[in-house]
Structure formats: structure tokens, C-alpha cells
Design a protein that fits this description.
The protein is of the alpha/beta class. The protein is built from 17 helices and eight strands. It starts with 5 loop residues before the first helix and ends in a 14-residue tail after the last helix. An eight-stranded mixed beta sheet has the order 3-2-1-4-7-6-8-5, with helices on both faces. The longest helix is centred in the N-terminal third of the chain and has 37 residues.
């Protein structure tokens, strides 16, 4: 359980306080010294442009590696190159759920049952919540009857919230993990923990048929696989065509962020659906049951426990998830906002890093710095960059015109400079739009041509979306953390049409 002493609370306050300081600083100096702010914004935008170019280079490189990886028959490669050693590798798939439609659960199980791997080496765990009542038990029994016999073992668990826990994926998986350990010890004592790869999937995860074969290959190839998490590419394609333009853009942005980060292995966090070794889970005591962002926290727990000797390995095999969608546009946007706010609440990892990691003298300084800096810098940039560029980039120009300070050469040319930077930055948006087309899911029915035109055209909404569904929900999350109005885990509603 989190102990929020004075020091911990200070670190919870810092991210929100930094955001407020940045905005107040720029706002105040817009009137005190607008020319200074103009210089600042120009430098900031140029630096941001270099960052965009850097990200796009990584994105294209990562995309090329992704295309090469998915083209390989990994199950064939596994059987031919690793002989019979792969038969010792087991996969435990954990599917936490709360009030999800049975159609969503069944779609995930159907894909798992058709994966290119020996199903007798796979254990499925459907982890429900007691708050759902008999409705979950009924769904679990239907799924077990239809799919249970296909795998080595099918288990369903029911988690009842305990004092000090946060209702959500973390507490559910914590309970399920401890329960599974007892089952493994009793029924499969011959399987070493080191030979079990656990995939903690969101319930809407549609896994690529080669995913488990590729994981097994990596497990048998890399050094020290028990100290490795595997992060697949998350592509939000399950309901892509049905979703709204705003939510599709947010989903694609998440995929591109992951692809870009894949080329920067020292900056990679575990996110959403991912996999890791069961031995590591047992060592760290499973997922924290009192946090919202259990997906990123579990990787940080392992880095801390193993004194920095732990890595997150990018996996260039995709898993497909749902774009946030609802029956009408307004509800869809609201739900997307809530999901982004929950993801931004991952800033709760910052006080954890600053308290737990700084106490651990065995973690090398460079590893501490990488993670702490990337957590804070990435989060602050998420909350502030779009507003700084698109709002504070133009307000000072209005002020200098009103106050007759527009005689400076830099002031007169500032609009041209900012527009030029933005135009160059648009090239990155075009690259993203092109790659987005290459990621489009196949459909049973032919898609009309005008929809492809709309898909390309909707990218002009990106500047507005980065503020409405990027900066603002992030600021919301940091303010809640700062004032102690702690969030719970909000379950994204899912539906299939």
C-alpha cells in the first residue's frame, strides 16, 4: 500500500506545479515582455521541430522492422531452429475483465484458439471482479464450455476488492497472479517458473497468430529472459472503421508513439497489453494493487527489484485493440478524454521513482536518470507542448502589435518563422497519415473511396486533437494528483458492431 508521507506528497505535487508554472510564466511575460516570449516560442518551436524529425526517423525505421518481422513464419522458424527446446516454453494469458460484453471476451478467446502455437502449452486465465456478481460467472462458464478444452488449462478467478486496494486491473491481476501460482504449484509442479511467459492482455486484445511463437523464439534466444518484459506494438484496429475521426487520430498517435519509442530501448516502458516472465512476477510480488497504471508500474517494479538489471524488449509483432467508441460522437469524445486522462495518470509513477528508486543505491545512476527524466519530461511535454505552440505562439504577437512594439526585425518576421516551422512539421503529419493507411485493417465489405479521402483529410484536426484530447486530460490528471484527488481505474466501455 502506498505510504504518502510528506516527501511522497511533494513528488506528487511537482508535475502539476511545473505545468502551472510554465503557463503562468508564459502568460505573465506575454504582457511584461512579449518580445522575450516570442524569442522563447521561436526557439521552442525549432527545438520541437528537431524532435519531430528525430521521432519520424525512428518511426520509419521501426515501421520497416515491423514489416520484416510480421512477414516471418515464426512458428516454423521456432521449430526448425530451436529443435524441441520450444516445447518447454509455456504461455499464461491473463485476461482481466469487468462488465465486458461476452462478444468482446469471445473474440479474444477465438483468436487465441487459432494462434500458431501448441495450445497444450497455453493456460488461459479469465479474471473477473466480484462487483460484477453472477453475470461474470455466467459468462466465464459459457467461455469455459466453448474454449476451455482447447488449452492446457482454463481458469477463471473472481476478485473482491480489499481495503487499501484500487478497483481496477492492478488489484484484479494481483489477486489472479497469486491464485495462479497456487494452481501451478499444485497441478504443474514440473513446469519451472522460468519457462512460463505471462501475457497480461486487455480483454479486447486480438493477438497476432505469430505472437506467441515469436515470444518463445525470443525467450530461447536472448540472455537472461527472466529479466525481460516484452512490449508488442499496439494497433487499435478492432473497430477502426466504426470509430470517430477524433478517436481514430488519438489511437494512431498512440501506435506511432510506441513505434518511435521502440528504437529507443533505454526509454521504453511497459504499456497496456504486454508479456513478461512468471519468475519475475513472483519475485516482485505481482502487480501493485493500489495503483491505476499497473501496466507501466510492473516494469518499474522489476527494474527496482533487480537493481537496474531488467529491460523492456520491443516486439515487432502487433496486438490489436479497440478504438474508444460509443453510440454517438459526444459520448465517444468524452470516453476518449477519460481514457487519455487515465493514461496520463501514469505520472503517479514519478513519486514512486523518486522515493523507491532513490533509496536503492544499487541501481546505476544512468538508469535512474533515464527513467525519471523520461517520465517527467514526457509527461510535462504531453501536457504543455501543444498549448505552448498553438496558443502562446500567437498571443504575444497580438500584444506587440497593440503596444506598438512590432518594429523589431524578429517580431516582424516571427509569423513567417513560426509558419515555416509549422509547414516543415506538417511533413511529419503526412508521413504519419501515409503509414496510417498502411495499417488499415481489412474489411469484409468494400470501403468506399471517399472514406479513404476522409481518413487522409482528418489529419488536419491533429493540432486541435492534441490539445482537446492530449494536453487537457493530462493537465486534469496531474492536477488531481497534485491536490490529492486520486483517481480510480476507469474501464473503457467496449462494444462490437
Amino acid at each position: 500500500m502506498i505510504e504518502r508521507d510528506f516527501k511522497y506528497r511533494i513528488f506528487e505535487i511537482i508535475p502539476g506545479a511545473l505545468v502551472i508554472f510554465i503557463f503562468l510564466f508564459l502568460f505573465a511575460f506575454t504582457f511584461i515582455s512579449p518580445i522575450f516570449v516570442i524569442y522563447f516560442i521561436i526557439i521552442y518551436d525549432i527545438l520541437w521541430l528537431f524532435k519531430v524529425i528525430y521521432m519520424e526517423i525512428h518511426l520509419v525505421a521501426s515501421w520497416n522492422k515491423f514489416k520484416k518481422t510480421v512477414a516471418i513464419d515464426w512458428f516454423f522458424k521456432l521449430k526448425t531452429e530451436k529443435n524441441d527446446s520450444w516445447k518447454n516454453v509455456y504461455h499464461l494469458i491473463l485476461l482481466p475483465t469487468l462488465r465486458e460484453p461476452i462478444e468482446v471476451i469471445e473474440a479474444s478467446l477465438l483468436k487465441l484458439s487459432n494462434t500458431f502455437y501448441d495450445l497444450s502449452k497455453m493456460i488461459i486465465v479469465l479474471a473477473g471482479e466480484g462487483v460484477e456478481g453472477e453475470a461474470f460467472i455466467l459468462k466465464a462458464k459459457i467461455i469455459e464450455k466453448k474454449y476451455g478444452s482447447k488449452f492446457l488449462k482454463f481458469i477463471y478467478t473472481v476478485h473482491y476488492l480489499q481495503e487499501g486496494e484500487v478497483q481496477g486491473k492492478g488489484s484484479n491481476c494481483n489477486y489472479a497472479g497469486k491464485y495462479i501460482k497456487k494452481v501451478l504449484d499444485a497441478e504443474f509442479p514440473e513446469i519451472p517458473y522460468e519457462n512460463i511467459i505471462v501475457s497480461n492482455f486487455d480483454i479486447d486484445t486480438i493477438v497476432h497468430e505469430q505472437y506467441f511463437a515469436h515470444l518463445s523464439y525470443l525467450h530461447l534466444t536472448i540472455n537472461n529472459p527472466t529479466r525481460t518484459s516484452y512490449q508488442p506494438i499496439a494497433i487499435f484496429n478492432n473497430n477502426f472503421w466504426e470509430a470517430t475521426s477524433t478517436n481514430r487520430l488519438v489511437a494512431r498517435g498512440t501506435t506511432f508513439w510506441l513505434l518511435s519509442d521502440f528504437m529507443k530501448k533505454d526509454k521504453l516502458f511497459t504499456f497496456s497489453s504486454h508479456s513478461m516472465n512468471f519468475k519475475a512476477l513472483v519475485d516482485v510480488g505481482f502487480w501493485n494493487n493500489d495503483v491505476v497504471s499497473e501496466d507501466s508500474r510492473i516494469g518499474l517494479q522489476c527494474v527496482n527489484y533487480y537493481n537496474g538489471d531488467y529491460k523492456v524488449l520491443p516486439v515487432y509483432i502487433p496486438v490489436s485493440l479497440d478504438v474508444v467508441d460509443e453510440k454517438n460522437f459526444i459520448k465517444s469524445v468524452i470516453n476518449q478524454y477519460k481514457q487519455q486522462r487515465r493514461w496520463a495518470y501514469g505520472m503517479e509513477n514519478f513519486p514512486y521513482l523518486m522515493t523507491e528508486w532513490l533509496k536503492n543505491k544499487k541501481i546505476p545512476f544512468n538508469i535512474k536518470f533515464y527513467y525519471i527524466f523520461n517520465q517527467l519530461e514526457g509527461g510535462i511535454t504531453w501536457a504543455t507542448a501543444p498549448i505552448v505552440m498553438f496558443f502562446f505562439g500567437f498571443i504575444p504577437l497580438i500584444v506587440v502589435n497593440i503596444t506598438n512594439l512590432s518594429q523589431s526585425i524578429i517580431v516582424r518576421n516571427a509569423p513567417f518563422i513560426l509558419q515555416t516551422v509549422m509547414r516543415i512539421g506538417m511533413l511529419g503529419m503526412i508521413i504519419n497519415a501515409f503509414i496510417s493507411f498502411l495499417l488499415l485493417p481489412k474489411t469484409k465489405e468494400k470501403v468506399k473511396f471517399y472514406k479513404y479521402i476522409l481518413l487522409f483529410g482528418e489529419w488536419v484536426l491533429l493540432p486541435f486533437i492534441t490539445i482537446l484530447l492530449g494536453s487537457i486530460p493530462a493537465i486534469d490528471a496531474y492536477m488531481r494528483l497534485m491536490i490529492g484527488k486520486y483517481m480510480g481505474f476507469w474501464v473503457t466501455p467496449k462494444s462490437r458492431k
